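INTERNAL AUDIT FORM
Audit reference: QA-55
Scope: verify that the stored structure record matches its stored sequence.
Auditor: D.O.
Record contents follow.
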Amino acid sequence: MFFTKLDIPKSSFEISHSDRILTLGSCFAENIGVKLQNAYFLSFINPFGVLYNPISVAKGIRTLLSDKEFTASDLIQSGSLWSSFSHSSLFSATSAEESLQKINSRLIAARNFLSATNVLMITFGTAWIFEYIKTGNIVANCHKIAANQFNRRRLSVEEIVSEFSEIIELLNKKNPNLKIIFTVSPIRHWKDGAHENTVSKSTLHLAVDQLEKKYNSVNYFPAFEIMIDELRDYRFYDSDMLHPSKQAVDYIWSKFSQTYFSDETNQLKKELQRLRADLNHRPLHIDTIEYQQFLEAVDKKKNRLIEKYSFLRGRIE
């Protein structure tokens, strides 16, 4: 063996296709969220867009647990765009009305989803934050506003643990059976600087470690360690040499599957992935007898799965 193999113990709880999974946080939360959706799990990905720092993630969860809706007073205008400091630029628009429509429609859908969520997956990206000087509030995204309007600093371990202790207790009151999986994104924030990025990631690891020891509902998945130790080679990175390549994401997803899925769930996942490949197949000649027979076979396969697993009804139809 020519690489360091990480020994990841099987989780004390399992995730199945009947669970509802909400992912929040950095780009890696999106990577796993998309993998879950492609395998026909019920998952909701980043209702506020990508959130990098723990305080913005916590603020998002507080908003989901409240009855708040965003109004024009929550937006800022920068150039031609209206944006929210609580959201990524995906929610920006050339009018306040359009931005608010995007924000609130997504918020309501996520709030309804969270009310019956079994698993919450949170990925921290960086401990560095930007405080808007006018208000003192920590922002999720600076929306290309001049840097001199923000104060940049690094969160302490104590700040993160204190904030998320409150969040976890709020979530546990709402749903005592909720399981929370924390990850630290393996993506380096190179603009912070090499040393600053390392200190930032270390801060996040220390905070998550304390939270895992403090709460039985909290579990840590070592995506960071898999990328840094097992996949210690630049062929596992994208062209920017910072983000994981598709091959790396696939490998980490396989490790996630081994950790949290039962043998039955993993088998169903493989069947559903084959079904998705069949459903996505686009032949050169759609009017052939062979293609019609192929469609009939795929339809039978789909119906057999729905008959065996009734919770798939509506997901693959």
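Auditor finding: record pair retrieved intact. The chain has one domain: 20-262.
Action required: none
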